[in-house]
């Protein structure tokens, strides 16, 4: 497996998410009750969103030292973890765009008003 070059918080979050899924798959397949490593990645993902890239990357390096060795996983398992991490990322991006951004941004067809402001105006004038 090649070394991953992580250059920003978004990439780091994806790698942490993929590692979390790999650890979860490993626990399921081995019936292991030890989910500490998976839980560490879950906490890291939250930490990445609230701290600088440098701090989060240093924490990632510490956590990754305790990973299950990669040779415990076949190519199909790694692909499955990548797919799960991608689906999670797509879902978060969709939620940001549809739930947050589109409701606050100004729309030209609403006279440069946000949908929320336009709805308030419309409900106030009726």
Q: Can you give a write-up of this model?
A:
The chain contains 5 helices and no strands. The protein is mostly helical and 126 residues long. Helix 1 crosses helix 4. The N and C termini lie far apart (63 Å).
Topology:
Blueprint: H1 9-30, H2 36-49, H3 53-64, H4 75-104, H5 115-125
Name some characteristics of this structure:
5 helices, 126 residues, 71% helix, mainly alpha
Structural class: mainly alpha
| Arithmetic mean pLDDT | 84
User: Strand fraction band?
Assistant: under 5%
Helix content: over 70%
Give the overall form: elongated
Q: How large is the count of helical segments?
A: 5
Radius of gyration: 20 Å
How many extended strands?
0
What are the segments in which pLDDT stays under 50 over at least 5 consecutive residues? Answer: none
Tell me the distance between the termini: 63 Å
Taken in chain order, the helices and strands follow as HHHHH
Largest sheet: none
């Amino acid at each position: 497996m090649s070394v991953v070059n992580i250059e920003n918080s978004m990439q780091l979050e994806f790698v942490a998410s993929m590692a979390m899924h790999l650890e979860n798959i490993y626990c399921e397949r081995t019936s292991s009750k030890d989910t500490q490593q998976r839980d560490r990645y879950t906490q890291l993902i939250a930490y990445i969103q609230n701290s600088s890239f440098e701090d989060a990357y240093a924490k990632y390096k510490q956590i990754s030292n305790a990973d299950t060795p990669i040779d415990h996983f076949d190519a199909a398992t790694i692909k499955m973890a990548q797919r799960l991490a991608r689906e999670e990322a797509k879902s978060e991006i969709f939620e940001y765009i549809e739930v947050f951004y589109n409701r606050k941004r100004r729309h030209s067809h609403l006279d440069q008003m946000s949908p929320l402001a336009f709805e308030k105006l419309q409900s106030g004038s009726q």
